[in-house]
Design goal:
CATH architecture of the largest domain in chain A: 3-Layer(aba) Sandwich
Strand content of chain A: 5-15%
Number of helices of chain A: 12
Oligomer: heterodimer
Distance between the termini of chain B: 67 Å
Largest sheet of chain B: 8 strands, mixed
Largest interface: A-B, 46 and 45 residues
Shape of chain A: globular
Number of domains of chain A: 2
Strand order of the largest sheet of chain B: 3-2-8-9-10-11-1-12
Number of strands of chain B: 16
Radius of gyration of chain B: 23 Å
Number of strands of chain A: 5
Strand content of chain B: 15-25%
Helix content of chain A: 25-40%
Shape of chain B: globular
Amino acid sequence: MPRKGRPKVAVWKFTSCDGCQLSMLDCEDELLAIADAVEIANFREATSAVVEGPYDLSLVEGSVTTLSDARRIQEVRAQSRLLVTIGACATAGGIQALRNFANIEEFRQAVYARPEHISTLSTSTPIQDHVPVDFELRGCPINKDQLLEVLSAFLDGRSSNVPTESVCAECKRRGNVCVMVARGAPCLGPVTQAGCGALCPAYHRGCYGCFGPQESPNTASLIRRLEALGMDGPARLRVFRTFNASNPVFRAASEAPAGGNP
Amino acid sequence: MGAPEEGPARHYLLARADFQSLFDALAREGYTTLGPTVRDAAIVYAEIRNVEDLPIGWTDRQGPGTYRIERRKDDALFGYNVGPHSWKGYLYPSRERLWAAHRSPSGFTVEPPEAAPPRYAFLGVRACELQAIAIQDRVFDGPYADPAYRARRASSLRIAVQCGQAGPTCFCASMGTGPRVGPDHDLALTELLGPGSHRFLVQVGSPRGAAIADRLPLRPATEEDLRARDALVDQATSSMGRSLRTDDVHDLLLGNPGLHRWEEVARRCLACTNCTLACPTCFCSTTEEVPDLSGDRVERWRRWDSCFTLAFTQLGKGSVRRSPTSRYRQWLTHKLASWQDQFGSSGCVGCGRCITWCPVGIDLTEEVAALREESSAKTAVSGGER
């Protein structure tokens, strides 16, 4: 069935680096097709032209770190038929969720020349902690092909095909040589969800887990292997607390005692 | 040259200094040569054009969950054990477009897949790998034959190489799949390397292999060369790192789904899919439709899947094999037991890739032994109670 009309799509930024929005703009070959298929009604990173809501689809980047964020996400949700979060910040609080493990007042005093101008919450929380989310697209940043798949699925009214298997599956399909087996490199690939195309291992680096946990992550077993490869507790805490620190699985893995079992 | 025979009359020698002539002959016959080369800290399979592309003087050290390449004391061309890749990646690519369809005013039109299959020459196929290809031949033939696999397979050439050594994770001898190269090949090479002498025994296994051999500067082999080959194969057999008892494994695995060991191995299993995708015989795939944004064109792709993913058994109400226990049990039981019922042979050729490339080093030979031990202990106890 040919499609009717062009749905209105909005792209929103909360606390984030804009990298996921840039992934969307990085769809250079497909941008014209996107503009043909949907009406970009609100996308400040790309255009100052704004069409009023309601919107058929909202793509939300960033986490909630201020009272203003917390109020605004309610407004976005109220105007959106479907809401999809894009990236590790929106999905799991992002790098800035490291504040959840520290004293925000100390940060404020240490970092800013005029701390009294800074108004912030003591936590960075994912969008789903505040409003219902229809779909989460993971990654730091997101993968543009997955974004196109989500848009395509939205246009066709079908569920999107975003595998939740491990990064290892992508590594093997790509023909990468396992960096953990062949180099002894610590790698979170076995417990991390696919989607990046096994980017870091393709460049001989262990996976940093930026897509968050895979569908059935066995972090305890991986931790025992990481320990055997020489990773100590503080190093493990850091590796599980980079992009998805507030994800319950990675948080538990960062805090688990030696041997991996919480 | 005619049908292959045993005995020196059908065996030839190729000097190391003339080895480049094999690459040249393959190129002249229109083959794309794929073979071992050092890349990314491993000996992988890739397109190669010259003898210098081979892993000259390299070998590997393997164990459960660990693999390192290191220098040999000699300049052997094939002095390594099987690595992370298998020929599966070429005969049955990890991602393959099956077809595409266009919407048209009157309906839709289907674009067929590309017509001409590649013409591959696989250089350095080990005995276990020949058997793995034979297993996949059976999987992709029959009532559900895969035309693209059949076409690639029919146009490809298998140049086997005898193993002169075995690795710590090798167990082909106990699977009956090696280390001696079987008769089903196009050419078989044995690297004979001694003080002041470096040559290759060449056996011709098919007319297409003969067409290549005709282009090589060969001289007749002697009984002594055949004895040297046999000694090498014996050496590989005696250095085999592992073994798997196969006589009871069918009933052992199918008859004991409730053993504690299944739970125990699942505590170590990462459900990461590495074993299945490194395995040269695992063939499971999924298909996915990839529409473009206009909705007017769609491609159907097939990609490798694994019984270790939840999506593999996704039905309306969710995944059937939710627990990693059930997924590991499914894999091992299919590989070693129900594969026999389905395809007439074990699905395992004893190459050891699933042991080496498991990030946490789970060893199926050890798991089978532990399952057997637990099963016999259980039988002994229940026998005693009666």
